[in-house]
Amino acid sequence: MEVSENFRRQATAAVVWSFILNWGSRALGLVIFVLLARLLNPQEYGIAGAGFLILSLLMVIAEFGLGDALVQRRDFTTEDANGPFFVSLGLSVLLSMLTFWFSDRLATLMSIEGAGHYIAVIGLLSPVLMLSGFQEAMYRREMMFRALSIRGLVCLAIGGIVGVAVAKGGGGPWAVIAQYGSQVVSSTIWIWIRPVWLPKFEFNGKSTREILAFGIHLVAQRLIDFGTLRSVSFIILIYHGPAPLALFNVASRITYILLELIQGSVNSASTVILSKLSGDMERMRKLYLRVCSIVSTFGTPIFFGLAAASLQLNTILFGNHWAGAELLMKPMLLLGGIYCVQFINGSYLIAMGKPKTFMWLIVFKAAVVLPTLYFIKMDTVEGTVWLYCAALLAETPFMFHFTIRSLSIRWTSLVKPIGAPLLCASLSFMACEFAQKFSWAQISNPFIGGIIQGGIFVAIYALLTTIFNLNNLKENIAFTKNRINGV
Fold first, then answer.
1. Which is nearest to 457 in space by CA: 316, 313, 340?
2. Under a CB-based contact definition with an 8 Å cutoff, are residues 36 and 45 in contact?
């Protein structure tokens, strides 16, 4: 009982500090992003964004899934981490050198001639990110989320100050690179000054092979997922140029931040917590349905409501020189309203020891999305983004099917926690779209227009929730209060 209570206190503290880190960093990150977007034009932002596409790919390969593999490992000794650390470090250095050497050729392939020097510098961040991520995994394993939260917020602020200063000095794309680079470097220095683990040249061949084997599945999964989710960025860049890519990045940033806020608040701790609960299937089932209900009741309407006011939101946040981003923001936010619930399934499949099932679902998503994007050519960026979002949703029913089957839950069990809130949010969004056809709702002032659209959405969603989902809403509020009070 004492061990159980101790773990419960650790888990609660982990979730709280993970919550602080995610909400604090995302809020501060959004402020920095908005400031830079207002100081830079779409062409400048798009060039930097193209370079970071390369860096994202490098990190998927170099990290090799080893951080999560170490966090998940039950019988862990400090010696187990040595082999994976040096493998990942060597791979990241090699990839960084190759990127630096072939930077001009990569710029040509991505249709951004003359941007090779940006890509070369961005590529040098790969080993630094690897060092930061590996030590961070050790912190997560020890549930030291308080230290991670403080470090994350301070280093993000440092990056923001540097980035805004460079942008004000007319640095163009270098402002974005300076912002992220200074954040990463300061974060890496900080975490290695007070490490919870230090590498040694002592290796356990058996554990290294086991961790690498686990990592192979994760990196394969992430490469496929990277190709699927980032394919739209490459297509926009190649066929439409860096400025439209920047519009898409701005439009999708709101969706990604919200998804990270909702899911990321518990993701860091959930890998450990769910793995420990995986033997208690009844508790897993109840927790799954409750989490799905809470996220769909409170998360989905946020996405759908912002989608209804996407025009006003874009103008208020980014200014008139980013006009057109709202057309891409709407489909991405609607997608996010569904994905914020769908993402829960991945954590449960992995916790129940079904990473292969999760990987095959990602393969299926890639098999739908990639051919759709590459063989159906849309004339506009807006059409490409709508097509991309529609293709991504093809995976949704299968993701839920395999998760609820693993948990021995019936489809009808999802009607109350997910179906009712989704119906209320969808009808509220459609009501806002219909209202925009009338002259009284077409207000030129973005603040007043946003208030009107938001008011319509909230009023209708509240009314429909009272009719269709009131009991479920009360249960979710009671559950959340009990968790806060430690009941």
1. 313
2. yes
Give the whole-angstrom CA distance, residue 340 versus residue 294: 11
* 352-391 residue pLDDT tens: 777 778 778 888 998 999 999 989 989 899 999 999 999 9
SS (H, E, C) 128-193: HHHHHHHHHHHHHHCCCHHHHHHHHHHHHHHHHHHHHHHHHCCCCHHHHHHHHHHHHHHHHHHHHH
**Selection from 289, 284, 336 nearest residue 310 by Cα:** 336
Cβ count near 79 (within 10 Å): 13
- Alpha carbons 149 and 16: distance in angstroms, whole number: 10
Tokens representing residue 482 in the block:
């009990």
8 A C-beta contact, residue 259 and residue 336 = yes
d(CA 61, CA 59): 5
Phi, psi of 77 (to 5 degrees): -125, 155
Residues 6 or more apart whose CB falls under 8 angstroms from that of 63 comprise 88, 92, 130, 133, 219
Residue range 143-172: mean pLDDT, rounded = 89
Q: What is the pLDDT of residues 430-480, one digit of tens each?
A: 999 998 887 766 788 889 989 999 999 999 999 999 998 888 888 888 877
Which tokens is 60 given? 């998927």
Classify 73 as helix, strand or coil. Answer: coil
> Helices 470-484 & 281-298, crossing angle to 10 degrees?
110
Three-state DSSP state, 61: helix
Whether residue 447 contacts residue 323, with contact meaning beta carbons closer than 8 Å, is answered with no
Confidence of residue 487 (pLDDT cuts 50, 70, 90): very low
Separation CA 82–CA 199 (nearest Å): 5
Tokens found for residue 373 = 């994007």
Quick one: which H or E segment has residue 260? helix 242-277
> pLDDT > 90: what percent of the chain?
39
- 179 contacts 20 by C-beta, under 8 angstroms: no
Tokens 């994760």 map to which residue?
218
